[in-house]
Amino acid sequence: MKTETLTPEAREAALLEQLRRLLRGELSEGQVLRHLRREILGMSQGDYARLVGISRRTLSDIERDAGNASMASMDRVFRPLGLRVGLLPRQPALLSRLVADDDAASAAHAR
């Protein structure tokens, strides 16, 4: 699988956009992983599965949001993308507050 080479800034922007869509509930973790693997890394499922040390079938299941992948497997597949699996509030209002509080803290720290 071959994609055009993205600048580091373009890669970061694409990653952030996928994460925003995930946090808004527009995409699943599997959809984000599939997009980033293909569009950002330009890797096939087989190549990526070998890279992270899981079977291609497990990777396929994760990308299709099928089965019950372990936390260890989820961490393995997201690690090359600079991401880790974590806990987020289920309620959108609470998630919005969390992000807003973090933005405010970051802005205050930058001063």
TrEMBL record:
**What SMART domains does this protein map onto?**
HTH_XRE (SM00530)
Which InterPro entries does the UniProt entry name for this protein? Cro/C1-type_HTH (IPR001387), Lambda_DNA-bd_dom_sf (IPR010982)
Q: Where is the HTH cro/C1-type domain?
A: 33-88
Please name the PROSITE patterns in this protein's record.
Answer: HTH_CROC1 (PS50943)
Q: What is this protein called?
A: Helix-turn-helix transcriptional regulator
Top-level taxon in the UniProt lineage = Bacteria
The molecular function GO annotations come to:
DNA binding
Q: Which SUPFAM superfamilies match?
A: lambda repressor-like DNA-binding domains
Record-linked Pfam families: HTH_3
Q: What is the lineage of its organism?
A: Bacteria, Pseudomonadati, Pseudomonadota, Gammaproteobacteria, Oceanospirillales
Q: Which residues cross the membrane?
A: none
